User: Fold these one by one.
Assistant:
Number 1:
Amino acid sequence: KPELNKRNSEMNDKMMIGTDEIPVCSGYTIGFSIIESFKMNNPQINDTELIDIKAEQILSLSKYDE
């Protein structure tokens, strides 16, 4: 969460490339889960509208981390 809006961070690389502790492409899996949770909790928002919502708002409205 602290690196949500950072580009080219070490954590982003670890989440995509993987490490001994983090599986390869974990970032995609987590992102997919967040979007699925968002859609379940906000069925009135369609995919076209979702594109324009900031990442912090998507995470908050997804209730993923609750």
Note: The helical segments are 10-17, 26-41, 47-50, 55-62.
Number 2:
Amino acid sequence: NDASFVLDINLSIYEHQSTICPNMPVRSLIYFTIILEGMLKDRNLYGRKLVKIPTPRFAVFYNGEEEQPEIYELRLSDAFVHPMEQPEIELICTVYNINCGKNRKLLEKCRFLREYMIFVDYVREYHRLAGFEELEHSIEQAIDRCIREDILREFLMKHRSEVVKVVKLDYTFDRQLMLEREESR
């Protein structure tokens, strides 16, 4: 559910989060340096000629259940022990809340992202109706409904068992994090 790619000399790094994570700029910096290391391994970084790198772009798609703004930024400098007015390095992750009713223009432009959120909403609906029991059955119901409604149809038909495993794992992990946060209050 995470991706990076170079397109038109931009290196775009996309992350998906179903939990709030203020550490995304630090994680994105790590991903960026790993990617750059691979891209530059045969380049002379000690030479007199400037080695150009793709322009980085960092986006996070949030679909968790905690209320969040439609769009907001996370900055690497927020993690600095000693804040600076003008940090010597900065990395900004733009967070897009893709939950129902948020970022409609973005979801209209990206069919797969929109359909993914429909699927997630169906899983949540079925799981709620089941009294938050039988998660796997709720996922299966959501998959069946999406296939009937031609939502991610080809993908879900081809990768059904993987989707069940991943969604079950993500949901269980997110639920555990939420319970731990509630307990620490």
Note: The mean pLDDT is 89.
